[in-house]
């Protein structure tokens, strides 16, 4: 085997690069052959050592574990924290060993250049997986780097950033996203003691219980996709927004046999007090006699669920959401499942579960008769004639289920909206059309609104100014988004929701392919750059087309089938005929009339289409919606859940009139053009996914690829076959190939110069636009001559295109590290020059005082002091600020300021008012006003930089919030001190969230 010499020459590096590229081409070819649709062995684990086709490697140090092929040990050095530095031929086997070695030495994060690979070690299973519960988990420097990069890029360019987590279900996306969010708060948001953090943590606790459930692949699986948008302005966190994607409605009424319903139901039953149970008509009910729960897994840890329920209740309080309103709806949903309609032989159906019917009616604030009528009768519009009819038992049971689903998902949407809006702003300008409002965590927003209204008259204009200001801010400020969408799943049987979830995973995979592989290959081709490495990635567009193409995609054909009231069988026949030559659609064995299979990028999934049409229609009849109008319903929260629909329905005189509405909440504007639902479940999901992509396309992505270490959630178990399957589907080898030997980065010449011109001697560069390419060459030549960018084993190469300079990842890393060293050295020499200057300035006085001490004047004879005045008053060295102050000439053009002020109606002479600070802090679930008595947890200031100091244990008075982020104002000895939150503790210990 070729081993590079310690001081390898360029040829050696080049040779090694060729060797890598050849071996990886071979492996990729083998994988592609093996992974053709219809080749079940495509997903097989690699051959054991000596089995041929293991792709080289496969040397000593690794033992096959028992059944699962568990890797017990490996000889790969765990200190290789970036896979592009791996020596020897790059094969899947080599990657697997490297990841296993790091995993066994507790290094679960590994880089592939700028991309982070995270292997879930399952050491934290059983944790509720919220922002608060991960507070004790130590933050990892690799996650810190991702966040710092995002914040740096955002503040340098103002460009939105998106941290995109992907991986199969259970791979740790939500866990990593919580840690990233925490890290973001550490870097830019004042830490976890701020109100903003507590508020967001409470929102996540509430949403996790409502939106996560046990599935076959993950006992804490998120059934709600999240996109957390964090607005960062000048490196400081400004506001947050949670966008939620709720798909899995069927789980509310029919969890799969080995899975569970939403966690909140189990927590509710375990955590309610006996009085609350009576109030909610839940006395005597448990997991085994409630229909919506008993069809799933009925095992439960009651103590754990009860504890989580108490936390959930506390957090609802923090968000200002009435507990009783929400639990009334949840109890009604549970009891609805026990109402069964059966055909009586007559016109009307008969009811089994009269008690439950009465209970549900009273919980929802309607009469039993009204509810029964809403569920068991339907109004039809037959060519303008309004006709009423009774539903049969089947239809009545379906309407009952629709009601349960509608109540649940509308409650979740309402909570998301409420949780998202500490302060709701008029503008919905932004990025996505999801259930999201804005949560303003910083009083700067108020300030900006105040500022914008100075000099304008009337509330109308001030509102529009606020909206305009908001729009300008949104247009100019980038956000940092953390995307934790659904991971690939293959439950048995898979349903329509799973098809949507897998479409989402396919779309994210395509996004990755486009960004990492396609754009790199295409831009090299466009600019005539030749790369030695041929990156051969698997494009998943055919699968996305199969599912979502406009006319012939599986989803479009399903919509057509719904509109003609077809059946599951006819749908299956049509898709099989339409796609008979498409290798991605296969017939599962044994052949069943209602099933079909799709070869996804991460594996083959068999779907059962039995409920596809009903799930996709996603409708509730207006007869049922009308029941919740305030004329008949005295429970305001229930009326609110159907607010938009009721408004549209009661806009006309005939109610009900035979129209249907969506189960999922629909915005009022969508209902304006008619009362019929504007879309189906899948259309709606597709539109939202499209909007999300539009947002992502405008953001700079940072990828975190998550891998689960085993399929049984066993801590510290590394299952070779499971990991290998994910390495393949996530195309880790192809990524390493590109990063190690190709040109994954390109920069405009100007951008390259502005970042790296500090690396060449000042006189070396021409510094004019026409000579930009020459200057780039000069910088690289200069670094090469000084031997600053060549490291053995690292491919450092570049090429000049028509508009860009193309860089290998190795070169980018070297440039960044030389840049850091150069800036660091420059900072040190500036500091030392400044200190020397200061010392020289002080020297005459110092010299004089030393001389005086040597010949003391008679007056000082008795109490001789050796400490000179100048030593006492010597100022502490100030840290050099990270960002230099803005160049006044660049930023403060007086004319522009005047024009801007005129445009926004601001008065230049009068400064904007000081932002009013919030007159309280949030503690547990209560707001606590000022003054507050607090105790110092540690001394302040801890560096003795102030005359007044507070000691640990001192009782102090907090008089208000400081304008400084994350600080409170403490009045002490007639001084006002700005003390960070974390230094202070309330006298009576607060409830933590
Ligand atoms: N880095 C880690 N260290 C320890 N435990 C982890 C880690 N990542 C995830 N886990 C645990 O693994 C389980 C699954 O993680 P998580 O729910 O984040 O996966 P996911 O990819 O978001 O899955 P889904 O797509 O189904 O929501 C959780 O119980 C979590 O606590």
From TrEMBL:
Annotated transmembrane regions: none
PROSITE patterns cross-referenced by the UniProt entry: IQ, MYOSIN_MOTOR
Disordered as annotated region, ranges: 33-76, 432-460, 870-890, 907-926
Molecular function per GO: actin filament binding; ATP binding; cytoskeletal motor activity
Region (Actin-binding): 689-711
Pro residues bias locations: 876-887
Entries under Gene3D superfamilies matching the protein: 1.10.10.820, 1.20.5.4820, 1.20.58.530, Kinesin motor domain, Myosin VI head, motor domain, U50 subdomain
Record-listed ATP binding positions: 167-174
GO terms under cellular component: cytoplasm; membrane; myosin complex
Protein name according to UniProt: Myosin motor domain-containing protein
Lineage, broadest ranks: Eukaryota, Metazoa, Ecdysozoa, Arthropoda, Hexapoda
């Amino acid at each position: 085997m070729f081993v590079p010499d310690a001081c390898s020459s360029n040829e050696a590096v080049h040779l090694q690069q060729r060797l890598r590229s050849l071996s990886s081409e071979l492996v990729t070819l083998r994988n592609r052959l093996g992974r053709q649709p219809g080749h079940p062995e495509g997903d097989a684990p690699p051959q054991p050592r000596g089995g041929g086709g293991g792709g080289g490697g496969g040397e000593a140090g690794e033992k096959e574990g028992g059944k699962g092929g568990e890797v017990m040990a490996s000889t790969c050095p765990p200190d290789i924290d970036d896979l592009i530095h791996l020596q020897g031929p790059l094969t899947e086997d080599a990657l697997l060993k490297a990841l296993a070695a790091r995993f066994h030495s507790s290094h679960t994060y590994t880089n592939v250049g700028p991309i982070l690979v995270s292997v879930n070690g399952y050491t934290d299973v059983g944790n509720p997986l919220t922002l608060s519960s991960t507070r004790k988990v130590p933050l990892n420097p690799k996650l810190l780097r991702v966040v710092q990069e995002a914040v740096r890029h955002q503040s340098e360019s103002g460009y939105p950033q998106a941290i995109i987590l992907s991986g199969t279900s259970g791979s740790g996306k939500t866990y990593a996203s919580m840690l990233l969010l925490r890290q973001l708060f550490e870097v830019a948001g004042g830490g976890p003691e701020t109100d903003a953090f507590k508020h967001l943590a409470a929102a996540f606790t509430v949403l996790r219980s409502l939106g996560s459930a046990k599935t076959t692949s993950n006992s804490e699986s998120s059934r709600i996709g999240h996109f957390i948008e964090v607005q960062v302005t000048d490196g400081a966190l400004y506001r947050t927004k949670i966008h939620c994607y709720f798909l899995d409605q069927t789980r509310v009424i029919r969890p799969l046999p080995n899975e569970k319903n939403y966690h909140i139901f189990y927590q509710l039953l375990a955590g309610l007090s006996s009085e609350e149970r009576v109030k909610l008509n839940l006395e005597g009910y448990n997991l085994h006699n409630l229909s919506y729960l008993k069809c799933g897994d009925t095992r439960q840890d009651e103590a754990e669920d009860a504890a989580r329920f108490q936390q959930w209740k506390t957090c609802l309080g923090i968000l200002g959401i009435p507990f009783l309103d929400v639990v009334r709806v949840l109890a009604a949903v549970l009891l609805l499942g026990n109402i069964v309609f059966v055909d009586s032989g007559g016109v009307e159906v008969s009811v089994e579960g009269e008690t439950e019917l009465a209970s549900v009616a009273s919980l929802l604030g309607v009469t039993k008769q009204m509810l029964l009528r809403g569920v068991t009768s339907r109004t039809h519009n037959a060519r303008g004639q309004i006709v009423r009819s009774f539903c049969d038992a089947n239809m009545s049971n379906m309407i009952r289920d629709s009601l349960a689903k509608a109540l649940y998902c509308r409650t979740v949407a309402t909570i998301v909206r409420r949780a998202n809006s500490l302060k709701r702003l008029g503008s919905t300008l932004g990025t996505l059309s999801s259930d999201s409002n804005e949560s303003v965590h910083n009083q700067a927003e108020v300030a900006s609104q105040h500022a914008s209204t100075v000099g304008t008259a009337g509330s109308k204009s001030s509102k529009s100014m606020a909206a305009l200001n908001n729009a300008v801010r949104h247009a100019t400020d980038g956000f940092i988004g953390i995307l934790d969408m659904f991971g690939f799943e293959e439950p048995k049987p898979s349903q329509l929701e799973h098809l949507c979830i897998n479409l989402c995973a396919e779309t994210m995979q395509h996004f990755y392919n486009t960004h990492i592989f396609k754009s790199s290959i295409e831009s090299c081709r466009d600019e005539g750059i030749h790369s030695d490495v041929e990156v051969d990635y698997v494009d998943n567009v055919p699968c996305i087309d199969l599912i979502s193409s406009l006319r012939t995609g599986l989803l479009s054909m399903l919509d057509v089938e719904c509109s003609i009231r077809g059946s599951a069988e006819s749908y299956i026949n049509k898709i099989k005929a339409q796609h008979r030559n498409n290798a991605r659609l296969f017939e599962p064995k044994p052949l069943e009339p209602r099933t079909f299979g799709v070869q996804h990028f991460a594996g083959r999934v068999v779907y059962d289409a039995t409920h596809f049409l009903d799930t996709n229609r996603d409708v509730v009849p207006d007869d049922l919606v009308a029941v919740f109008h305030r004329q008949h319903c005295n429970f305001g929260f229930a009326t609110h859940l159907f607010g938009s629909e009721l408004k549209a329905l009661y806009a006309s005189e005939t109610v009900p009139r035979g129209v249907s509405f969506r189960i999922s909440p629909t915005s009022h504007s969508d209902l304006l053009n008619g009362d019929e639902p504007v879309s189906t479940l899948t259309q709606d999901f597709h539109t939202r996914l499209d909007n999300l992509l539009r947002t992502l396309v405008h953001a700079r992505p940072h990828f975190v690829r998550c891998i689960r270490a085993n399929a049984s959630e066993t801590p510290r178990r590394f299952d070779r076959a499971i990991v290998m399957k994910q390495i393949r589907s996530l195309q880790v080898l192809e990524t390493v190939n590109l990063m190690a030997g190709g040109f994954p980065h390109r920069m405009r010449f100007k951008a390259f110069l502005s970042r790296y011109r500090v690396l060449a001697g000042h006189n070396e560069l021409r510094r004019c636009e026409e000579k930009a390419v020459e200057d780039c060459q000069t910088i690289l030549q200069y670094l090469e001559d000084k031997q600053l960018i060549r490291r053995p084993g690292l491919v450092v190469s570049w090429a000049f295109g028509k508009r860009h300079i193309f860089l290998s990842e190795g070169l980018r890393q070297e440039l960044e590290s030389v840049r850091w060293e150069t800036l660091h050295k420059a900072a040190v020499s500036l500091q030392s020059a400044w200190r020397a200057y200061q010392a020289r300035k002080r020297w005459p006085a110092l010299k004089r005082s030393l001389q005086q001490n040597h010949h003391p004047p008679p007056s000082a004879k008795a109490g001789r002091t050796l400490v000179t005045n100048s030593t006492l008053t010597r100022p502490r060295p100030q840290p050099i600020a990270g960002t230099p102050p803005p160049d006044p000439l660049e930023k403060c053009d007086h004319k522009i300021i005047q024009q801007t002020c005129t445009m926004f109606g601001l008065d230049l002479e009068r400064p904007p008012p000081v932002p009013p600070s919030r007159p309280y802090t949030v503690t547990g679930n209560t707001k606590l006003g000022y003054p507050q008595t607090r105790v110092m947890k540690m001394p302040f200031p801890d560096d003795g930089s102030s005359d007044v100091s507070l000691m640990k244990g001192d009782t102090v008075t907090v008089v208000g919030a400081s304008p400084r982020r994350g600080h409170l104002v403490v009045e002490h000895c007639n001084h006002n001190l700005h003390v960070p939150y974390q230094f202070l503790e309330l006298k009576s210990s607060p409830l933590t969230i």
